# Entry
Amino acid sequence: MHDDFLRSEWAEHHGAVSSLLAELIEETRFAFERLAARTYDAPWKHEAHTGLCSGAGNDG
# Structure
């Protein structure tokens, strides 16, 4: 069992497996970054950019 990585299948396909694992890790990292950004978002920053704040630069 401990010598499975020495078999020919691993020798032929370790590059593809490694790149797929790297892609999976990168996509997971991106998903957690997006989740953290949505969870810890500052809503007042969006109000200033969209003009939703009633007194922001509104002279009448």
Notes: The helical segments are 8-39, 43-50. The chain is about 65% helix and 0% strand. The mean pLDDT is 78. Residues 8-39 form the longest helix (32 residues).
